[in-house]
Specification:
four-stranded antiparallel sheet; 9 helices; 21% strand
Length: 190
């Protein structure tokens, strides 16, 4: 089962760049599966993010505490996606976000040093880094644009398209927070 889980990261890498058997045989032993229990926090706001977490199975919630002390859900990371605070990870500065498991979750953790090794070792390693960074930028850009250009119903429909079955996997108050609406408004949208 572990080999199959490790191959999921290979599939993700292949969705970005070509990787041959020799490169994969060098990289594969670097990847290890970690299990995170439901509700465990793997990154706390204010601490330095030391890993990029590739979600093999399960679900992570990326959130922050606002100036009023309220949790605000920024994003959900589902299977075959990454979760991190990329700025904190790259600059080794305090994180703006926390990351919590919404279910028992299996992840592959990629450290900064491991990522640098992948950049050096893979023929298209630098391209991999650029494309992942672009995806991270688009995630932020889409989130900001949605708040300014979409109605709550449009944001709700986009969420359901982006995260199928999320309503069965995540408590309603986290969904409402993600959409930046009240739980009452979410009930009306449903």
């Amino acid at each position: 089962m572990i080999d199959n889980d490790i191959n999921k990261i290979r599939e993700l890498i292949l969705s970005y760049i070509d990787i041959n058997e020799l490169e994969w045989s060098y990289c594969a032993p670097m990847f290890k599966i970690d299990t995170i229990k439901k509700k465990d926090v793997i990154l706390s706001q204010g601490s330095v993010c030391r890993n990029i977490y590739f979600v093999v199975n399960g679900l992570l919630r990326i959130y922050f505490i606002d100036h009023k002390g309220e949790e605000k859900t920024f994003h959900f990371s589902v299977e075959k996606t990454f979760a991190t605070d990329y700025e904190s990870f790259l600059k080794s500065i305090p994180s703006s976000f926390s990351i919590q498991a919404m279910e028992d979750t299996a992840v592959i953790s990629i450290s900064f040093d491991m990522l640098q090794e992948l950049y050096k070792t893979l023929r298209f390693g630098e391209k991999l880094g650029r494309l992942i960074t672009e995806d991270y930028f688009f995630l932020f850009n889409d989130k900001i644009n949605a708040f300014y250009t979409q109605t709550p119903l449009e944001r709700y429909n986009n969420m359901n398209e982006k995260f199928p079955k999320i309503l069965q996997r995540v408590p309603q108050h986290y969904i409402a927070s993600y959409l930046n609406i009240s739980s009452v408004h979410l009930s009306r949208l449903k």
